[in-house]
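Summary for the lay section of the report: proteins are chains of building blocks that fold into shapes. Here we show the chain for PcfJ-like protein and then a coded description of the shape we predicted for it.
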Amino acid sequence: METKHQELFESNAPKIYSELPSLKTDPIIKWLLKNVFKERYLFYDKPQKTAVCSCCGAVEMPEDVKHDRQGECPKCHAKVTYRSAGIGRGKLTGRVRILIFQKKGKTVYATTNFVYADYGEGKVRLFKDVDGVFKFNRKEQQGYQTSYGYFEGGRWIEQKNIRVPHRQSDWGNAPLYLYGANLKQVFQGTDLRYCQLAEQAKEWYPKTFLKLVDLNAKYESIEKLHKVGLDHLIESKLVGEHGSAAVRWKKTNLSEILQLTKPELIKAREMKISLEGLERYKIARDCGLPVHIGNKCEYDMDVLKTLRSCQKLIEPRKLYRYIKKQEDTAAGYRLYTVAKDYNDYIKECKELELDLSDKAILLPKDLQAAHARTSAQVKVKADPEQQEQIKRKAKKLRYLGFQDGNLLIRIAETAGEIIEEGKLIGHCVGGYVDGVAAGRTNIFFVRKSSEPEEPYFTLEMKKEKGEYRMVQCRGGGRNKGNGTMPEDVKAFIDKWMAEVVNAKPKKRKKVA
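The coded shape description reads as follows.
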């Protein structure tokens, strides 16, 4: 076979291109003409009394031939279209792509090729150009493809994932064929000799078969799964189905690969369980949920992943009951949405260094509200503009600071202070940062004068109709919740509101 553009790419080809074994093209040409190029012509020249079959070569000219009439080659008996040598044949062409495997030592090589058939000279001429080269053994799997862009200049690109090169030109629509006549010889004596790939070739499309060879070279587990009849798991892997983590592909022992008991393995094979189905079953089983491999696992994947990721914090069945309860308490709150929100909430709690050993934080009564608060806190930590707004607001309200006896009160100066206050006392003030920055509310800290840096009570105050009003005042431990302020704290707050906050400017007391 001739080449059209190969010289352009050979000058800067990757190393594996030079490693390719020499290719015997005669059997490939016969295969192409007999099995691939469906257009069969018999070109005849009546004055010269000659004829050439595009399938088998020179033949005796049949009697009663006529241009464009259907007939039969007298030599190979192929169904042909008669074409007169004196009539133009410029548009008589065909194009395909072929996948060819070869071997060298214990390594398997493959190439994808453009093949162009030109019938314009009264006989078929074949042109072949390589557009992808691949190398497979246990130690390495490599793939390179050419770029046929106008400005690329014959560039080779290394593939991140082994695949048949995708083409957007007319060649992208050309059918792809696998040359399979030599496959038994190719895989014998190589690292893939026990994988039974030659026998499997007819079961897969050529582009999928190339991926299958790559998987067998990469993971010995593929061979083991095939031999015990779990090809449906391999197929799930090849098509990119979710659930690949359910199989430990790098292991070589079947029990370690699947982590299933023998009865479970038998049932998985009978049910032709997919990767996603296997992953659902294994997570549900390991979380102690009632599940059977013979039945479709009804648990939502987002719920299962949340149970698994949080099992060091809380027993999975207990968390599942909590998620179900949250779904029931909020209108339109779906089970998978609850699970996603809870997973995000726990991540945010960890980022904010909240105490997850506190049940009120680990399992908040209203997950939606708790998640909104932690999201706001995380956002503020990363938002310098909001932090600056809180600082400016605090500067304006410092005049409301007050001390009397063993207690003092002051404005929260920064977003970090507000978040830290909630973390140390164990309440939700950290979620109010957004409101403080926007000017919708104000946060003050009540401290003991002897311990001015230790959180004691946190007060929220809003301005309505020109006058400030206390919304709530919460402490930690036994002082959590509204209406539980000790008498001295309540008296202190009342005095502060009367003499400082809502007092006329001339009568307002200053901080002692």
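Put simply, here is one thing we learned. The first strand starts at residue 41 and ends at 45.
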